[in-house]
Specification:
With 305 residues, this protein is mostly beta strands. The protein is built from two helices and 22 strands.
């Protein structure tokens, strides 16, 4: 393991908000916020694809692909207190473990001792080779990934997920927040309990799902894609701008539509899952409350890196 660079301490006088409740009353108290920045680098010696596992108890995770064979990690540990001394002391409760085993790098941030209404946090920023497989977990925070061309698992309990210029398998899940993904040759499973789910780009053959309990679902793909789609909303309507869509069940403008683009191998429909068809893209779109929109994008735009 490469030893860390010298951490940088920065005391911020901006308030850190603490919510105290007594019965139905709520008192907002201003707290002092302190940060400590740590940076580490991990060389990737092997010829295979590296992997990065990053987890934080509270805070966002941001990833960007870079040239080269090195994983760069920046963690901002955040403490809060009633004065500067207390805020600086609270940073010690934010603990970060770093490890490297072969070409797998692991960064895990945890909170020791008691915590005050999510007052402390650990924000993680990563720069990784383009072919890095990612497993990203936050219990409370936004996850953003840009330019990674390997599988991405991104789960957060509370926060949006934003994935751009992706390629490969995308496993995206949040309990509260929107999911916005753009990619090429992607295999997508995106689920949120509250928020819009959107994918724009080019899907690989296989099974895909975009689901939300409360929000709109948007799928934007080339009209030339070998697409089977099953879309259903409990409260809303399904609309389509895809040229050549052959409707097999339901119809546009209602709450249910099953169809395929012209030239796509036929698949059986019914109450069960869409039947697999050779060289086809099978997509299931679901929301309990919101519209479902099928949109067309030019093939050149969908395959843009």
């Amino acid at each position: 393991m490469i030893p860390p660079k010298t951490p940088r301490m920065a005391l911020l006088l901006v308030p850190c908000t603490l919510l105290l409740s007594a019965g139905c009353a709520a008192i907002m108290t201003n707290m002092v916020r302190a940060t400590l920045v740590e940076e580490r680098s991990f060389p990737i010696a092997g010829q295979g694809s590296p992997a990065v596992i990053a987890e934080t108890f509270n805070g966002g995770i941001k990833v960007a692909a870079i040239p080269g064979r090195e994983v760069k990690v920046k963690v901002t540990r955040i403490g809060c207190g009633r004065d500067q001394a207390a805020a600086e002391g609270d940073i010690a409760n934010v603990q970060v473990a770093y490890a490297q085993e072969g070409d797998t790098v692991r960064v895990v941030a945890t909170r020791a001792g008691s915590k005050l209404a999510w007052s402390s946090a650990a924000e993680i920023e990563l720069q990784v080779p383009t072919d890095t497989a990612l497993t990203l977990t936050s219990r409370n925070g936004r996850i953003h990934a840009l330019g990674v061309h390997s599988p991405i698992v991104a789960h957060t309990t509370n926060g949006e997920i934003d994935v751009r210029a992706a390629r490969g398998k995308l496993d995206l899940e949040t309990s509260n927040g929107r999911i916005d993904a753009e990619g090429t040759d992607a295999v997508v499973a995106a689920t949120t309990s509250n928020g819009e789910v959107r994918f724009v780009g080019n899907l690989a053959t296989g099974e895909h799902s975009l689901k939300t309990s409360n929000g709109r679902v948007v799928l934007a793909v080339p009209s030339s894609a070998p697409l089977h789609v099953s879309a259903r909303t409990s409260n809303g309507r399904v609309t389509s701008e895809l040229a050549g869509l052959e409707v097999q069940d339901g119809k546009p403008g209602t709450n249910h539509l099953v169809g395929r683009l012209a030239g796509t191998p036929k698949a059986s429909i019914g109450s069960g899952p869409i039947a697999e068809a050779e060289a086809a893209i099978n997509v299931r779109l679901e929301t309990s409350n919101g519209e479902i929109s099928l949109q067309a994008v030019p093939a050149a735009e969908a395959t843009r890196p």
